[in-house]
Design goal:
Elements (H helix, E strand, L loop, with lengths): L2 H13 L9 H8 L3 E5 L4 E3 L7 E7 L2 E6 L5 E7 L4 E2 L1 H6 L6 E4 L3 E7 H7 L4 H27 L2 H12 L1 E2 L7 E4 L4 H7 L4 H13 L4 E3 L2 E4 L2 H7 L17
């Protein structure tokens, strides 16, 4: 596929991606001409620890798990990437091997952004440099929030914070909300640095207290205010997660 075909195919996808919409149209077209689409089936590795990257991914559809593996095979999930977010840009820009494993949790569709295109575009369009800085800054803020949660928050507080962060309010009753767990409970638990048993116990505890209702991955929250208050969290603990991410 030549550059013109890639631009025609990939430009509409970039235009719908959070963050990229703020980039000038001609700059976005230039980046799109160096992109290509990629599909992944459930369980497929998109990049491995130690792999050199020539660009980064934008997730268009599906879910991607970012994790670390010990020499013994134990896994620690660091994040679950949702559509509209990116991963891999830090390793690509630094020219260092990727530090994480990226695995599709379900059939997924992605856009691969060529790093050389980004570097060549920055002198012409400073907005692209600003976008890259925002990506790195948001990732740093997310890491600080994750470290704070692991070191200072109880298991119950971590679960409540995750529920409140991902909840979608009801348009007619703003205090009511719903959400769907982004992955299997074992994966979500690992991303919160909890065991699957602890995560399930905390969910059941919230159900018994009438703060949530759970049906498989679907979660209903009768009152966001009650969940927030009885979860023992301050407003500062509930900042929304960054829309962009990186390995």
């Amino acid at each position: 596929m030549n550059h013109a075909d890639r631009e025609k195919t990939c430009l509409p996808l970039l235009e719908r991606t959070p963050g990229f919409a703020s980039v000038p149209a001609d700059a976005l077209a230039y980046l799109a001409a160096g992109c290509h689409q990629r599909t992944a089936t459930r369980g497929q590795l998109l990049c491995e620890r130690g792999q050199q990257l020539g660009g980064f991914h934008v997730l268009l559809r599906g879910r991607v798990k970012l994790s670390l593996l010990s020499a013994e095979g134990a896994e620690r999930v660091l994040d679950i990437v949702l559509p509209g977010r990116t991963f891999g840009e830090s390793a690509a820009f630094l020219g260092r091997p990727c530090a994480l494993h990226a695995e599709a949790l379900m059939d997924s569709r992605l856009l691969y952004v060529d790093l050389n295109r980004v570097r060549n575009a920055i002198p012409r369009w400073p907005e692209i440099a600003n976008l890259m800085l925002v990506m790195v800054a948001e990732r740093a803020q997310r890491l600080i929030a994750d470290l704070e949660a692991c070191c200072l928050h109880s298991a119950a507080q971590r679960v409540v914070a995750m529920l409140l962060r991902d909840a979608q309010s009801d348009a007619d009753e703003p205090d009511r909300a719903t959400l769907e767990l982004p992955a299997a409970k074992t994966v979500v638990a690992s991303s919160l640095n909890l065991s699957a048993e602890t995560f399930s116990r905390e969910l059941h505890g919230l159900v018994r207290r009438g703060l949530i209702e759970v049906e498989r991955r679907a979660v209903r929250i009768p009152s966001l205010e009650q969940l927030r208050r009885r979860g023992g969290l301050e407003a500062a603990d509930l900042e929304p997660s960054a829309p962009l991410d990186a390995c």
